[in-house]
Amino acid sequence: MKIRKVTCNSFFLVLYLFLAVSICYVPHIVKSLLTAILFLLPFTFIVLNKEIAHKLAGKVCFFICIFFLFFFIQLLNARVSFSVFYIISSFVLAYTLLTQPFSIKYVKLGFYLLSSFYFLLLILGYPLDAYMNDSSRNLVSINLIVYVVVIYLLECKQNKSYSLVPSICLLLVSVSAVGRAGILCSLLLLFAYLIYRIANSKYLLFVILLLLLTFVLVFVDDILILYDNLFAKTRFAAEGLESSEREELINTYFSHLNLKTFLIGYDYSQNLLFKSYSFNPHNSFLRLHYYIGLLILPILYCFSKTLCRLFWKFDIFISLLFLVLLIRGFVDTIFFFDKYDFVIVAMVIMPFYNKVSPKNS
Question: Which residues cross the membrane (predicted)?
């Protein structure tokens, strides 16, 4: 019975992640349907695990208050969106992720299948966004980085050693997708992994440096050719880390802030610059302020407190993952009233559950 429960939980988690990815590839009318399914799918875990309903019952008032608070702000701003309902489903999925059993093997299998799809596109000579429907190639690295973080959260919960391969796959796909933010955050995630390993092994740094030096000396010519063919031709190399488009959007948003717009958020739906970008601010925090205004301040405080709590009292690696996700959210609209909010919620509430054992010592 327990094996069946683990299998079902793992299946629906992988299904959720795959449906989240598939939104990038389907027509707009199907996207709306998938969005509704992604909202409802986390409640499947309540059906499969009756104890979740009992444990969350005591927090119903809290959920209702949070939901109606955000809903009221959106109503006040005349910016009510269906996405506000993700508040409820995100809490359910985050709680399930931290308290219910999952098979990491099955979850990893889904990740490797998804990575294989992107590697196959590369082998066949197609760009990674070849089959996307009106979606940015940045979503390739976004989808994978969220998947990798889910794997690491499960490994942390089950006190298993963190896997290196998912981070390597993420970096390879991100470099191939040539998105600057994806490459940067993938490198940061891999760097976070190495920092964690070094912190737990005083000899690992020496071994890594020795292997890296040996690799560079042996394959120096191949590395230069690879750089010329891949990295040197990317926007990362051509334009650097700065993004003039994102900077312009941020500056425009802040230039329209006054007392009123600071309190309730600036409505950029009438702004021509934002309209030219299909009203995508390319910044999760700008969109969050657009929706809830001043209420962004307690959320930012919560994030900073979570970051400190994870780093000092829980798990260094998880805290670094949280930081990487926040950085990724700063350059793309992927969080806050969206399908991947459950990852952020899970990391915020993670230290409060006894079933999750800290690895710091």
Answer: 32-49, 56-74, 80-98, 110-128, 140-156, 168-196, 202-227, 286-303, 310-328
Helices (H), 23-124: 28-40, 43-48, 50-57, 60-76, 86-99, 104-123
Phi, psi for residue 102 in degrees, rounded to 5: -135, 155
Percent of the chain with pLDDT over 90: 6
Three-state helix/strand/coil letters over 149-164: HHHHHHHHHCCCCCCC
Q: What is the pLDDT of residues 51-67, one digit of tens each?
A: 776 666 666 666 667 66
Is the pTM higher than 0.70? The answer reads: yes
Domain spans of the chain, in order of start: 2-352
DSSP 156-223: HHTTPPPPSHHHHHHHHHHHHHT-HHHHHHHHHHHHHHHHHHHHH-TTHHHHHHHHHHHHHHHSHHHH
Tens-place pLDDT, residues 261-270: 888 888 887 8
Tokens coding 250: 């941020």
Query: Residue 109 to residues 14, 70, 322, 343: CA-CA distances in angstroms?
Result: 9, 37, 23, 19
